[in-house]
Amino acid sequence: MTRSAVAAVLLCCATVPAWADGIHLNGVSPRSIGRGGTNLGFADNGAILFDNPAAAINISSEGLFEIGGGVLITDMRYSDPDNASAHDVNAVPIPQFAIIRRAEFDENLAYGLGVFTPAGFSQTFQLEGQFPYGGERTYKSWGSLTKIVPSLAYRVTDQLSIGGTLGVGFSHAELEGPYTLQNAGMLTGMPTVIDLQATGVTPIFSAGLQYLLTEATTLGLAYQSESRFQLEGNTRATLPVIGPYGFDADVNMTWPRTLGLGVRHQLDPARVVAMDVIWFNWSSAFDDFGITLTDEAHPAATAIHEQFPLRWRDTVSFRFGYEELITANQTIRAGYVYHRNPIPSETLTPYTPAILEHCFSVGYGLRWGLWDLDAAYMFTFSPRIAVGDSDFLGGDFDNSSYKAYTHFIGVNAIRRF
Fold first, then answer.
1. Would the pLDDT of 338 be above 90?
2. What are the boundaries of each domain within the chain?
3. C-beta of residue 39 within 8 angstroms of C-beta of residue 47
4. Quick one: which of 67, 278, 353, 417 has the fewest CB in 10 Å?
5. Could you give the C-alpha distances from 329 to 43, 266, 324, 325, 365, in angstroms and in order?
6. For the chain, percent helix, then strand, then coil, each to nearest 5?
């Protein structure tokens, strides 16, 4: 691997995106984001290794290298009876890297390697805390999913190609702030202030196919496995009377499996339309977070087993894209995405206000010698969500409301060889 590739891997692992469909981004390449995240039926960028690895054999050259990324600006808003208006604005870098080569010994075989950060959350509010931890308190959550995905693709017939990845997922999670224990046996209902950090690695895989239905129409189908992590780390918890106390922490965290179906249709030599429909299995992955705390100084002490309730619902993301070649070297793109909010209002908290629903995007592409340069912008927003009686014990999030916006600005460079 080249030095630039190693640098891209390390940079990807150090970043955290924020929300789109739940806490998944609406695409990992600025090129696909410019056309509403549609990519399952395409073979014109390196992010196909993530979205649909079967497309790798259908690129229009012997090889392809892509490097790029962008900045995701999040604007999250929260209020409750003790906090009239709270804003959290973050700017988060999101890089991505991919390389694809056609095998020299078999023109029907292609292989590749990609590094992507498709999901995550990052939120920090300064809020008035609940008794007995009143005063201004930090409510912070932080999580990331980075995937390193070696891939293979094979052209079975002139119409059908298949492909898959088998790689490694990296995840990190943090939770800091006032928290009432929800499902901790005899300790249920105890108010705490926690500072938790945990990290883990797990195997991941994906599989896909592309089918040339007609000369103008390509179908794509792709499945991505869930990423089930046993994160390990530590927690500093402030307990009533006892005060700060250290624990070892084990966190069960799962990122959802997905299944997507897409179609790309060439209207004429200059215009393309596309639609992807992607199911996210949030109900299985984000039913709860399991947290086990053990006394690092006294291993024989009784462990605390806590379940952080989420009860998220499955979502279906509808992505629509359009692109048009306006000159021999210039392309314009546009897109729209809709996905419902996966979080029931009863379990909505400022730690994970992933309530975005509507997305609009535009993009521009320029052919410059052997390079394709792309730029994209996506705006995402939510309706205002009101919470009456929260299901969280302690009353901290009762009668609260939420609204969210994000802006993504990204560029990428693609070199064919």
1. yes
2. 3-416
3. yes
4. 417
5. 18, 18, 11, 8, 8
6. 10, 60, 30
pTM: 0.92
Beta strands 315-327 and 371-381, pairing class? unpaired
CA–CA distances in Å: residue 93 to residues 67, 117, 252, 340, 355? 14, 10, 26, 25, 21
Query: Which two structure tokens, joined as six digits, stand for 155?
Result: 């052209």
Is the peptide bond preceding residue 132 cis, with omega within 30 degrees of 0?
yes
For residue range 276-331, list pLDDT tens digits in order: 999 999 999 999 888 998 876 666 567 888 888 899 999 999 999 999 999 999 99
Residue 118 structure tokens: 């498709």
Residue with tokens 């030599």: 269
User: What's the token pair of residue 20?
Assistant: 């789109």
Instruction: Quote the CA–CA distance of 333 and 189 in Å, as a whole number.
Output: 52
**CB-based burial of residue 186 (10 Å sphere; 0-12 exposed, 13-18 middle, 19+ buried)?**
exposed
How far is the C-alpha of 372 from the C-alpha of 369, rounded, in Å?
A: 8
Assigned CATH class of 3-416: mainly beta
